[in-house]
Amino acid sequence: MLRVFLLRSVLIALPFVVWFIWAEYSKRTGRPMGATPWVWLATGSALLFGLSLLFMVVFQSDNRGEVYVPAEVTEGGRVTPGRFEEKGTPAP
Question: Average pLDDT by consecutive 10-residue portion of the chain (92 residues)?
């Protein structure tokens, strides 16, 4: 979950980082700069965020046709994590 949050945070920040790096480079080379295009940067961030959601839906595997087996505490106090199993597969 943290990985997904960090990835989306990077995608949101990417247009802003690219803009400010380019603006700093332009100032150092003497190129005149206009105002910061906040609306375009926010739109680019929203577009990247939306595309990441779309790619997650399209490319992430689904678990239809599977049954969720919740985490269990076995003998000896060991915890087995929750998992998905095919329908009809006997539980261990």
Answer: 91 95 92 90 96 90 85 91 81 58
